UniProtKB/TrEMBL annotation:
It comes from the Eukaryota. One of its GO terms (molecular function) is growth factor activity. The gene is Osgin2. InterPro entries: FAD/NAD-bd_sf (IPR036188), OSGIN1/2 (IPR029731). GO terms for biological process: negative regulation of cell growth. This is OSGI2 inhibitor. SUPFAM superfamilies: FAD/NAD(P)-binding domain.
Amino acid sequence: RNYSSPETEGQLLNSFVQYFGDSLGRKIKRMPLIEETVLPGDSLLTLPVVIIGNGPSGICLSYLLSGYRPYLSPEAIHPNPILHTKLEEARHLSIVDQDLEYLSEGLEGRSSNPVAVLFDTLLHPDADFGYDYPPVLHWKLEQHNYIPHIVLGKGPPGGAWHSMEGSMLTISFGDWMELPGLTFKEWAASKRRNIKSDRVMPEEIARYYKHYVKVMGLQKNFRDNVYITSVSRLYRGKDDEDRSEVNENISTQHLEMEDEQKSVIKRNWEVRGYQRATDGSHVPFCLFAENVALATGSFDSPGRLQVEGEDFPFVLHSMSDFGAAISKGKFRGKADPVLIVGAGLTAADAVLCAYNNNIPVIHVFRRRVTDTSLIFKQLPKKLYPEYHKVYHMMCTQSHSADSSLHSAYTSFPEHNVLSFKPEMKCVLQSASGLKKILKFSVALVLIGSHPNLFFLKDQGHSIGHHSNQPITCKGNPVEIDPYTYECTKEANLFALGPLVGDNFVRFLKGGALGIARCLAIRQKKKQELIEGGDGGGDGVP
């Protein structure tokens, strides 16, 4: 491991201490950054919340934890009369302070998480019906509701949006990509950007998120170039299954502490990692948190077919690699088509990219074109004409046993890739078992991506709906309480965004709302206990 100089490490320490020392109202002599041999002590800082991931999920959660509160606007009338009546009942309360289960009851939307549907309909009423109603909420900054937290990300605020390909429009409108309190159009106008379409480039969204953190005053909570290596419990308490197992780093002295102190340690998380300095060196750290929120998104690991020949250099797994190949002129003068595997939006983007560059396409996917779970079935034709163009070709230009390849595009529905051959050939198998060998110039496997939770115990396999299986956004998301977003299998661990199945920015904001409400309630109860304890013994012991 490449350790930095003491001076560099000291600067990192001071940046934490200067802010969080004041925020927590205690004298902190050093930041929660320690050598691996050092045990946790009273002088080390324990944060109420550590957020892992600085994409839109992490940003929105930081916004709410910073004390911003949504209220029903005085003049607002929600188009859903039942919901509006409920909102009127507690107009004086912020949404964070209301019963989210009660408010979200009966609502329907394109998320399986009820709070996500609720928050979306408050911010974008009836958006799925094509309406452009303004939000029914207005925001207030209430400093007393601030919960100290830190957001850790590998790159600048915005997460994976900074590394997405810029050649394609986003699936969602710019308005749907925005975060609370700053409309995308306001930002575009302030930057004098000419947004020609309601749908925008990923690079525009990335700039908006980065600016959002700054203009909302959230940057003090963010640390960039941070890589997490481990998130673990300090020790297992008697509530856990293995009552005798103790973190081997906890000494006998720590285990002899009073019961009250034991319960605190049991709740805490230890977060280890390093921050990459400007000179490339690694500054290791270890900090402690009462709660950890996973907001890492789903772009860590591209999905793989796990077939023979997939590691050949002509088999690509990202749009950026495909775009680079086009830019380098690798397809000039080549008659063989590009082979695209997958039936999602990224695969559709690749089809459009190839089509627009006059590159013939072989499009292979496992599902039937009539499968109702295809994403194209969920997109209105008027709003997404280019994706419906791809879907139309998938349906009408499919290969049949007695036909040759179409000149520009041929689809192979209900086909699997069996293997790739070194002579740039691919073996396909149909649903009936029929095999076919096709020649191609480049293969592009775009079958989704998966989160990489390697820093959790067992890589996070234990916190999904299906135990002992990798977390995936569709098949095996993190199992959470639908209203608090706390992991049902691990207390004080929260998850939001794609990790719980909310791939659209529109819906991940609901996770931030659920977590913020849960933590606010717990903070209030904790404060009441403290105040009660200071009042002469009347409090709960």
